[in-house]
């Protein structure tokens, strides 16, 4: 992959240096120099083409409240691009960063301006913007995007301290994950694509119970109290980022089971913004129409409570969106294939790719419902966006001007 | 809603195996992985190959996080007795969340046999932290 910029300089047999320098790895310069041999008043033209490979990094923002790097979404996303993401080798074992061939995932907690003690003193939670250094976040994401490595701080979640920084090199795809990827406008403008994971209160409660009930210190009350206490800051600072996201994955309790309280079966909505460059929303049957679909019937037998899809255009915080929704669970492989074959614009490279990705990670949470399905699809859409972005930069024609 | 969830989980409190199976997301066929989880929670970190801590340093970290959760929950309850809506109360529960997340994060890593000290211990096998924790 090479990104080339083209300068023309008109001069008499001389070559002047380009006014911009490109920072990044693998720089090559090609000089074309032609002069007219006839004596004439015409000047010779020098065209200088500077090619920098890996000059631009694609930046994806993911807003989630589940802590960094362990989120299933992150693992599915890096898997779509190939390989598993791992912590940097030989560095701080408490690093939050994950690196794979193509992607680097940065945890935005690393930009805390206040450590645990500092936050306690000031009386601010980690959700509060006052606990985060957005200037540094902006500078470093901007640098990485331009192909410059940075010394990024590490926030140690075990000790609650800020550890010495780690060298972070610009990857092909940079994912910034955490509570505030879209909070600061400057950072927002650096994002090529953004996702917000919106978990409803009931589901959040159910998931935190699953996560924490086995811990000695916790009880139903403590889990509930923790969610309640964080809610005001969450609603004030985190939730409003939804309006800026290109895609929102909303997770709600099912509507298929009347009075369901167990939160096992989920209703998941993929809310996709219209008009985003290089992003064509997924649809069912026909774009822009409204459709409800129950795949279970004669061709496909599903067990209770079955599967229900819907697709429709809508508005979301003033934006035109398309919403694809799945309620229920997959029980068998053939259900998944059947559903996949009826979805359009899923950016797969071959038939059954979504199913294959889901099966690859059958042990991940959400593998049998809309969360896994939509996370996988968003991963494929991001791959598609990435490839289009890169192609658009290389595709610019390189021609020397005529003298 | 809370009471029904309690009912379905109380029976499984001793091991989060069934809790996870019941969660919205596991294809019930993955029994092998489920055994790993049980090992991690009931054995409290013993046995490297079964989802427990491989190195002493990690085992110590696990214990530390468990203790911190207990302490910080106690602290939060105390702090919030005065005023539930005070900043101190919010911060106290936020700390509980932070440490709970960290513990869950570690648990998940160990479940996937990714001891966070793996890389460090390859390079520094003789440190105290890198003693291999045997059953």
UniProtKB/TrEMBL annotation, chain A:
Q: Which organism is it from?
A: Actinidia chinensis var. chinensis (Chinese soft-hair kiwi)
Q: What's a Pfam family in this record?
A: PRK
Cellular location(s): Plastid, Chloroplast
**What lineage does the source organism belong to?**
Eukaryota, Viridiplantae, Streptophyta, Embryophyta, Tracheophyta
Principal localization reads plastid
Family affiliation? Belongs to the phosphoribulokinase family.
Lipid metabolism in keyword set: no
- What sequence ranges are listed for the domain Phosphoribulokinase/uridine kinase? 59-257
Q: Which pathway does the UniProt entry assign to this protein?
A: Carbohydrate biosynthesis; Calvin cycle
Q: Which UniProt keywords apply?
A: ATP-binding, Calvin cycle, Chloroplast, Disulfide bond, Kinase, Nucleotide-binding, Photosynthesis, Plastid, Transferase, Transit peptide
**Example GO biological process term?**
reductive pentose-phosphate cycle
Q: What is this protein called?
A: Phosphoribulokinase
From TrEMBL, chain B:
Q: Tell me which SMART domains the record gives.
A: CP12
Q: What is this protein called?
A: Calvin cycle protein like
What keywords tag this UniProt record? Disulfide bond
Q: Which cysteines are joined by disulfide bonds?
A: 80-89, 121-130
Which GO terms of type biological process are on file? cellular response to anoxia; cellular response to heat; negative regulation of reductive pentose-phosphate cycle
Pfam families tied to this protein: CP12 (PF02672)
List the source organism.
Actinidia chinensis var. chinensis
Bias class Gly residues marks the residues at 43-54
Q: Which PANTHER family match?
A: CALVIN CYCLE PROTEIN CP12-2, CHLOROPLASTIC, CALVIN CYCLE PROTEIN CP12-3, CHLOROPLASTIC
Which stretches does the entry tag as region Disordered?
Answer: 40-60
Question: Which is one Gene Ontology cellular component term of this protein?
Answer: protein-containing complex
Question: Which residue stretches, if any, does this entry annotate as coiled coil?
Answer: none
Q: Where is the CP12 domain?
A: 65-135
Q: Which InterPro entries match?
A: CP12-like, CP12_dom
């Amino acid at each position: 992959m090479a990104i080339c910029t083209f300068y023309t300089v008109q001069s008499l047999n001389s070559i002047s240096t380009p006014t911009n320098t490109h920072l990044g790895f693998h720089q090559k310069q090609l000089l074309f120099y032609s002069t007219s041999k006839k004596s004439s008043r015409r000047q010779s033209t020098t065209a200088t083409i500077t090619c920098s490979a890996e000059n631009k990094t694609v930046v994806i923002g993911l807003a989630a409240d589940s802590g960094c790097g362990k989120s299933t979404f992150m693992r599915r996303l890096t898997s779509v691009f190939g390989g598993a993401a791992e912590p940097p080798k030989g560095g701080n074992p408490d690093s939050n960063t994950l690196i794979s061939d193509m992607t680097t995932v940065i945890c935005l907690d690393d930009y805390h301006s206040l450590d645990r003690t500092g936050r306690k003193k000031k009386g601010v939670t980690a959700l509060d913007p006052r606990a985060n250094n957005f200037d540094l976040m902006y500078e470093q994401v901007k640098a990485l995007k331009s192909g410059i490595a940075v010394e990024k701080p590490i926030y140690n979640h075990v000790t609650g301290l800020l550890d010495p920084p780690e060298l972070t090199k610009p990857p092909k795809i940079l994912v910034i994950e955490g509570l505030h990827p879209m909070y600061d406008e400057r950072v927002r403008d650096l994002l090529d694509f953004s996702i917000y994971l919106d978990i409803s209160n009931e589901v959040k409660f159910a998931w935190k119970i699953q996560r924490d009930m086995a811990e000695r210190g916790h009880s139903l009350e403590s889990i509930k109290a923790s969610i309640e206490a964080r809610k005001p800051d969450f609603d004030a600072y985190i939730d409003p980022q939804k309006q800026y996201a290109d895609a929102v994955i909303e997770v709600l309790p099912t509507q298929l089971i009347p009075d369901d309280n167990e939160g096992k079966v989920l209703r998941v909505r993929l809310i996709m913004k219209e008009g985003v460059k290089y992003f064509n929303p997924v649809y069912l049957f026909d774009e822009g129409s409204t459709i409800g679909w129950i795949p279970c019937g004669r061709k496909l037998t599903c067990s209770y409570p079955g599967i229900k899809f819907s697709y429709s255009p809508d508005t979301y915080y003033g934006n035109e969106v398309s919403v694809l929704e799945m309620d229920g669970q997959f029980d068998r492989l053939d259900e998944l294939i059947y559903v996949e074959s009826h979805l359009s614009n899923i950016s797969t490279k071959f038939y059954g790719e979504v199913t294959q990705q889901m099966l690859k990670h059958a042990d991940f949470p959400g593998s049998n419902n809309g969360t896994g399905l939509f996370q996988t699809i968003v991963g494929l859409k991001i791959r598609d966006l990435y490839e289009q972005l890169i192609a658009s930069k290389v595709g610019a024609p390189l021609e020397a001007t005529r003298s | 809603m809370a009471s029904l969830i309690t009912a379905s989980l109380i029976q499984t409190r001793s091991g989060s195996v069934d809790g996870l199976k019941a969660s919205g997301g596991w294809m019930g066929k993955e029994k092998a992985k489920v055994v790993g989880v049980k090992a991690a929670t009931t054995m409290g970190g013993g046995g490297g190959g079964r989802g427990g801590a491989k190195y002493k340093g990690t085992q110590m970290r696990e214990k530390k996080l468990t203790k911190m959760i207990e302490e910080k929950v106690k602290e939060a309850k105390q702090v919030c007795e005065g005023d539930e809506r005070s900043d101190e109360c919010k911060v106290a529960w936020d700390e509980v969340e932070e440490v709970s997340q960290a513990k869950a994060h570690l648990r998940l890593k160990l479940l996937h046999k990714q001891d966070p000290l793996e890389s460090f211990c390859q390079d520094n096998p003789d440190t105290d932290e890198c003693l291999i924790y045997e059953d």
